[in-house]
Amino acid sequence: MEEPPFDATSASRSSTKHCDYCGKENAEEALACDGCGTSFPIPSASAPDDGSETEIGAPGEPPQLNARSATFVLLVSIAAQFGAALAIGLFVAVGAAISQPTAGISRDPNRAAALARKLMPPAIIAAMVGGGAAMLVTARRKVRASLSDRSPVGAAWALGSLRHIAVGCGLGALVAVSFLALARIPALRPTHIAPGPLTRMAMTHCLTKILWLAIVMLLAPLIEELLFRGVLYGGYRRSFGPTRAALLTTLIFWALHTTEFIRFPLAAFAIAAMAVAALWTRLRAFPVPN
After folding, report:
1. How far apart (Å, rounded) are the C-alpha atoms in residues 80 and 137?
2. Do 148 and 158 form a contact (C-beta atoms < 8 A)?
3. What's the CA gap between 80 and 67, in Å, rounded?
4. What is the biggest distance separating any 2 CA atoms in the chain, rounded to whole angstroms?
5. pLDDT tier at 11, thresholds 50, 70, 90
């Protein structure tokens, strides 16, 4: 019997692995895409020669970052922020109650306001540190394998080049300067401004302002970028695609800063612009090869 002709195309396709994200063909034994770095699912064992089925995606396989795991990390971080702030609030309130009668504080608006100003800086710092620590621990336990994945569907917890870092800083400065310039226009300024917690810290003096600078310039950007443009965007992009991931990540980030712009619409625009600039920088720093 005459053997069928050898199909080189079919043989080539059967020995390669197709990346669902960038479309690149990779060697069958590749663990990650050579084009974009997306990790391939690893089977628990090699397929036997007798044609029997093998279990793929066994419980021991590292879980991939997706919308469910990313949302879980976000919720744990938010819960830790509230818990840490509440703990500090209770501690300061108990100290105030011991040092002076609580009834006097509740009846005197000035003393109550002074206590709130005293409570605000440590509560904000505790919330940032507590939420950041919870986010780091939870992400390492849930999606450790995806944290160093630089592809758009990974968390991209990696240091970019100096050029991209400089571009990101420049974009942030441009957004800040644009906001300050627009805020000087009388028609865009509200008649009554109720500043949020961070803005109140910026309006104070001495140690509180130094703490505000540390939070705004160092602590908050580091934690928020790892969470929103890292874990959250990567997980949502894998599950929902690039457009929905960008919209959801930006909207959640914007909504969680409501206290800073509730009575200042221009600040809402500035926060949204900062989120878009940060996401653009993240994608430019680790692009998908053609």
Report:
1. 12
2. yes
3. 20
4. 103
5. very low
Task: At 60, list the tokens.
Answer: 């021991």
Reported as a single tens digit per residue, the pLDDT across 77-90 is: 999 999 988 888 77
Spatial contact of 164 and 285, defined as CB atoms under 8 Å apart: yes
Cα gap 151→117, rounded to integer Å: 43
Per-residue CA distances from 154 to 131, 192, 198 (Å): 21, 43, 31
Cα-based distances in Å from 152 to 155, 172, 261:
8, 21, 30
Distance of alpha carbon 43 from alpha carbon 179, whole angstroms: 51
Query: What is d(CA 18, CA 241) in angstroms, rounded to the nearest whole number?
Result: 18
SS3 27: strand
Per domain, the residue ranges of the chain are 67-285
Type of residue found at 250 = T
Residue-wise pLDDT for 192-204, tens only, equals: 666 566 666 656 6
Structure token pair of residue 115: 């206590």
Instruction: Give CA separation, 97 vs 86, 100, 109, 243, in Å.
Output: 16, 5, 15, 51
| SS3 category, 102 | helix
Alpha helices (H) in the chain, listed in sequence order? 8-14, 67-99, 102-107, 109-147, 162-183, 197-202, 207-214, 220-224, 233-240, 242-255, 265-285
Owner of token pair 């540390």:
214
Task: Give dist(CA 269, CA 273) in Å, integer.
Answer: 6
CA distances from 238 to 20, 54, 139, 157 (A): 10, 25, 16, 16
Tokens 């939420």 found at: 131
Pair of tokens at residue 53: 């089925």
Nearest to 235 by CA among 131, 127, 138: 138
Compute the distance between CA of residue 268 and CA of residue 258 in angstroms, rounded to an integer. 8
pTM of the predicted model as reported, rounded to 2 decimal places: 0.71
